[in-house]
Amino acid sequence: MIVRWLSIALLALVAAAQAAEPPAPTRLAPVDEAARDQSFIQFRNELKAVVARKDAAKLFPYLASDIHLSFGGDYGGPAFHKMWKPFDKDTKVWKALALVIDNGGKSPAPGAFVAPYVYATFPEEVDAFTHVVVTNKQAVVRDQPNANARILRKLDHDILTALSVADHDLVLGWSGLFQHEANPNRWVLTKDSAGRMGWVLAGDLRSPVDYRAIFEQRKGKWVIQTFLAGD
What we know:
Radius of gyration: 21 Å
Structural class: alpha+beta
Shape: globular
CATH topology of the largest domain: Nuclear Transport Factor 2, Chain: A
Oligomer: single chain
Number of strands: 12
Mean pLDDT: 89
Low-confidence stretches: 1-11
CATH architecture of the largest domain: Roll
Largest sheet: 6 strands, antiparallel
Helix content: 25-40%
Order of helices and strands: HHHEHHEHEEEEEEEEEE
Number of helices: 6
């Protein structure tokens, strides 16, 4: 009888502890703390202009000499040149950079800034490899992977579970999706916190482990210290 009572009491304590835990966030509103440092605002505006012009020659002074580019040991300007080929007309570096610097971020400490906000503010208790964030305030969920399908509901910066991807009439398993490489007509099968499923345009979503940048102020000058994806 005592053992049974202890088991019931233990289950009650576990249930109470679980009930006390706050639910995981279901939305991630945009955040931009750049205004905390006017020198960073100026730097970012200049960098945006370089990216808009696709000016490869002017880009390199904005990169740290030891810029971190991957988890495989790629560092520095020559590695950046080899990886991204910024002088090539078909390089994807401009879109990747624009999607980072145009989408807010957070200043974790003076002289530092992390972008975009989807990475910088993503909740730690949510699996970053299986979830995506809705970044288009006009995004909707449809019942089929095409633009003429019935709209199930509107979205509001929701955090969604990504299940699979539809591409050219094929449905593929979800393995992450870098937005700068996404086909604008590609669809992602998603599930919200209530378990409701539906299709969302890939361009309306961003993975928190997509490309991000860490900016650092060194001797009064801002540079991109890290530009990578994954974990």
